[in-house]
Design brief:
The complex is a heterodimer of chains A (246) and B (217).
Chain A: H1 2-23, E1 26-30, E2 34-38, E3 47-52, E4 56-63, E5 66-71, E6 76-80, H2 81-84, E7 87-88, H3 102-106, E8 110-119, E9 122-132, E10 137-147, E11 151-163, E12 170-185, E13 195-209, E14 214-226, E15 233-245
Antiparallel strand pairs in A: 1-4, 1-7, 2-3, 4-5, 5-6, 8-9, 8-15, 9-10, 10-11, 11-12, 12-13, 13-14, 14-15
Chain B: H1 2-33, E1 54-55, E2 58-68, E3 75-85, E4 90-100, H2 105-109, E5 120-139, E6 143-160, E7 163-177, E8 182-195, E9 202-216
Classes of the chains: A mainly beta (246), B alpha+beta (217).
Chain lengths: 246, 217
């Protein structure tokens, strides 16, 4: 019975996917002498068909910078952005596709990345996501795991970042944030000393566009740990990594 | 007789000429009087909306395989991966896997001995893959599937023997694409982390071989 349900639901999922494909097809007309259709979304996949000038092709779906198209003869294949730009829209205008570039980097909204580095002499690993809501300002959330010799821990934080010159390829930024740090003693130690404290974060760093959708990020952060003990702790973190923007 | 036929013929020609002139005159008059076309044809001319094209840059993968944790017998590992295809050449992928490690030499030689209180090893990694060789592979003599050889490296964490350990991984894999939406791949990875379970604190190399089934969305 379970198997039957699975089969039925799988059938509907596929039927839906196929219906979607047909509904969403948009048509363009080849303007170059011909365009090449590859078997897969990449330059390395072999070319199996070409479509001549003035022939219509339907654009079905996209993977990275490649588009799956169907010719009027029913042949399917993948066409690169560069080639799809050599087609005409029904209005007769050339197809315009924004490619990931420095221009797009300057106006991007979302960023997701991974950084590694040193947190108070321990190895640290951070994943972050940021959203740029004005020319200079963005909010970001990050989660850091700390691998110490005698203790492990994690930090969850929210930061406000100010990018000084967003139009530059590489620009310095400044950040302010707050979050929670949790430190756990290793199981091998006799006296466990676990703690969860609030932290305030001040930091600065540099972001640089590399190419395509990649950017490089390096930063220094100073954590003020509001300890329940008498003294507030001061912790330094250096890290670098890369991110992808949308 | 001849002149009679000729006169009938000429009359017919004259008559048809007159009709033609009348018709063409009417048509010309109509053309001159015709108002400009108000209703345009109803053919829908939609321009390409790039945003409406279905993008399939994400790939969700489930895997099973073998993991050989150093000093322990190899054990079955399973888990899931989520990849984002950044460009035709690069993809970022996060993986999570779990295994119950086998016994070590000491445990095998000493009945009843137990090195570990918890045999479960969980890990995660965030890796960057590079599609080095894209092409087609023949499966049988008539069917060709798209395939790609990739190398991959990344960082992550391993939760084993009571500790979280920073873990670096690198490896390679071979991926088949039977359709544009599904992938089958074979992946070999070395997960490297420090371990002191056996008495000495050392960097261990933990080899993993997995069979993966992926779905693009």
């Amino acid at each position: 019975m379970k198997f039957l349900w699975l089969t039925v639901s799988l059938f509907f999922i596929f039927a839906h996917a196929v219906a979607d494909d047909i509904d969403n097809i948009q048509y363009v007309v080849v303007a170059d002498p011909y365009i090449e259709m590859h078997t897969g979304p990449g330059k390395g996949y072999p070319i199996t068909h070409v479509v001549e000038r003035d022939q219509e092709i339907g654009v079905m779906k996209r993977r990275t910078d490649w588009y799956k198209v169907r010719s009027s003869r029913g042949k399917e294949g993948w066409v690169s952005t560069e080639q799809l730009k050599l087609t005409l829209q029904p209005s007769g205008l050339p197809v315009d596709i924004p490619a990931p570039s420095l221009e797009e980097y300057r106006t991007h909204r979302w960023e997701v990345g991974v950084l590694g580095g040193d947190f108070d002499d321990s190895t640290s690993l951070t994943a972050y996501s940021s959203y740029t809501f004005s020319r200079h300002l963005s909010i970001e959330a990050d989660i850091t795991q700390i691998f110490g010799n005698s203790s492990d821990g994690w930090v969850v934080a929210a930061n406000l970042t100010h990018t000084f010159v967003p139009q530059w390829r590489a620009s310095p930024f400044f950040l302010l944030g707050t979050g929670i740090i949790h430190v756990e003693s290793k199981s091998t130690l006799a006296e466990p000393d676990d703690s969860t404290e609030q932290v305030a974060i001040v930091g600065a760093g540099i972001k640089a566009y590399i190419s395509e959708r990649f950017l490089l990020r390096a930063e220094y952060k100073n954590y003020m740990v509001f300890s329940s003990k008498n003294d507030n702790e001061d912790v330094n973190e250096w890290k670098a990594g890369f991110a992808v923007f949308f | 007789m001849e002149s009679r036929i000729r006169s009938i013929f000429l009359t017919m020609v004259r008559f048809s000429c007159c009709i033609l002139m009348v018709i063409s005159g009417t048509v010309a008059a109509q053309e001159a009087d015709a108002p400009p076309q108000v209703i345009e044809s109803q053919v829908e001319r939609r321009d390409l909306n790039v945003g409406a094209i279905d993008t399939e840059d994400f790939e969700l993968t489930g895997f099973v395989g073998l993991m050989s944790v150093e000093d322990f017998e190899s054990s079955a590992v399973y888990g899931a991966r989520l990849a984002y295809h950044i460009s035709p050449a690069f993809f970022a992928e996060g993986s999570y896997g779990t295994t119950d490690v086998g016994s070590d030499a000491f445990e095998r030689q000493t009945p009843g001995a137990n090195t570990l209180s918890d045999r479960t090893l969980n890990y995660y990694d965030l890796s960057l893959g590079w599609n080095v060789l894209q092409g087609e592979s023949f499966v049988g003599s008539t069917r060709a599937w798209n395939s790609v050889f990739y190398v991959i490296a990344g960082v992550g964490s391993t939760d084993f023997a009571g500790d979280d350990q920073f873990t670096a991984n690198f490896g390679f894999g071979f991926k088949f694409l039977p359709t544009d939406s599904f992938s089958v791949r074979f992946d070999v990875r070395d997960y490297m982390f420090d371990l002191d379970v056996t008495g000495t604190d050392k960097t261990t190399h933990n080899m993993q071989m997995t069979l993966n089934l992926g779905w693009f969305f």
